[in-house]
């Protein structure tokens, strides 16, 4: 039977948003994130990172640096709560129009979010049931992507629970608005329990 998954955006969901992180030691987890991922691990849910990383295409740093950042991310998750990501997908490609300059990575790619390529690739490779899966991101365009691929989309926003400023939510309707990953995971686990009843 195909597995359920939770897809996780990286910057602003797992680690503190800091633009293009040029030094590995500048990657820091958001508080309680490791515990939230551990909770998903304990529920037996496949945890999958899906991240746009255009640094290589912009010639800011090589792919090996993105890999080093992900190694630190995985290490911090493990150290802080024994948590793990089951798979990590990222898109180093960027079209010329969007600012790609390094020829090796300058291309239009179906993997670049909000295209659904990484979700589809992960589903094929890991036998995932996208219709039973969730995407958690701090970007409304990722919520659109989730809906385009048949997933539920959870938006993480520090503004959650506060009055929404006109137009802030775009036309996207997230299935749930959470203030952080911890809140998102609480909601997801409730949805899964409901589904199993
Ligand atoms: Mg983000």
From TrEMBL:
<feature type="active site" description="Nucleophile">
    <location>
        <position position="9"/>
    </location>
</feature>
<dbReference type="Pfam" id="PF13242">
    <property type="entry name" value="Hydrolase_like"/>
</dbReference>
<keyword id="KW-0479">Metal-binding</keyword>
<keyword id="KW-0119">Carbohydrate metabolism</keyword>
<feature type="site" description="Contributes to substrate recognition">
    <location>
        <position position="112"/>
    </location>
</feature>
<feature type="binding site">
    <location>
        <begin position="9"/>
        <end position="11"/>
    </location>
    <ligand>
        <name>substrate</name>
    </ligand>
</feature>
<feature type="binding site">
    <location>
        <position position="9"/>
    </location>
    <ligand>
        <name>Mg(2+)</name>
    </ligand>
</feature>
<dbReference type="GO" id="GO:0005975">
    <property type="term" value="P:carbohydrate metabolic process"/>
</dbReference>
<dbReference type="InterPro" id="IPR006549">
    <property type="entry name" value="HAD-SF_hydro_IIIA"/>
</dbReference>
<keyword id="KW-0963">Cytoplasm</keyword>
<feature type="binding site">
    <location>
        <position position="139"/>
    </location>
    <ligand>
        <name>Mg(2+)</name>
    </ligand>
</feature>
<dbReference type="InterPro" id="IPR023214">
    <property type="entry name" value="HAD_sf"/>
</dbReference>
<feature type="binding site">
    <location>
        <position position="91"/>
    </location>
    <ligand>
        <name>Zn(2+)</name>
    </ligand>
</feature>
<dbReference type="GO" id="GO:0016791">
    <property type="term" value="F:phosphatase activity"/>
</dbReference>
<keyword id="KW-0378">Hydrolase</keyword>
<feature type="site" description="Stabilizes the phosphoryl group">
    <location>
        <position position="51"/>
    </location>
</feature>
<protein>
    <recommendedName>
        <fullName>D,D-heptose 1,7-bisphosphate phosphatase</fullName>
        <ecNumber>3.1.3.-</ecNumber>
    </recommendedName>
</protein>
<dbReference type="InterPro" id="IPR006543">
    <property type="entry name" value="Histidinol-phos"/>
</dbReference>
<feature type="binding site">
    <location>
        <position position="138"/>
    </location>
    <ligand>
        <name>Mg(2+)</name>
    </ligand>
</feature>
<feature type="site" description="Stabilizes the phosphoryl group">
    <location>
        <position position="113"/>
    </location>
</feature>
<keyword id="KW-0460">Magnesium</keyword>
<dbReference type="GO" id="GO:0005737">
    <property type="term" value="C:cytoplasm"/>
</dbReference>
<dbReference type="InterPro" id="IPR036412">
    <property type="entry name" value="HAD-like_sf"/>
</dbReference>
<comment type="similarity">
    <text>Belongs to the gmhB family.</text>
</comment>
<feature type="binding site">
    <location>
        <begin position="51"/>
        <end position="54"/>
    </location>
    <ligand>
        <name>substrate</name>
    </ligand>
</feature>
<feature type="binding site">
    <location>
        <position position="11"/>
    </location>
    <ligand>
        <name>Mg(2+)</name>
    </ligand>
</feature>
<feature type="binding site">
    <location>
        <position position="139"/>
    </location>
    <ligand>
        <name>substrate</name>
    </ligand>
</feature>
<dbReference type="GO" id="GO:0046872">
    <property type="term" value="F:metal ion binding"/>
</dbReference>
<keyword id="KW-0862">Zinc</keyword>
<feature type="binding site">
    <location>
        <begin position="112"/>
        <end position="113"/>
    </location>
    <ligand>
        <name>substrate</name>
    </ligand>
</feature>
<feature type="active site" description="Nucleophile">
    <location>
        <position position="11"/>
    </location>
</feature>
<dbReference type="InterPro" id="IPR004446">
    <property type="entry name" value="Heptose_bisP_phosphatase"/>
</dbReference>
<feature type="binding site">
    <location>
        <begin position="17"/>
        <end position="20"/>
    </location>
    <ligand>
        <name>substrate</name>
    </ligand>
</feature>
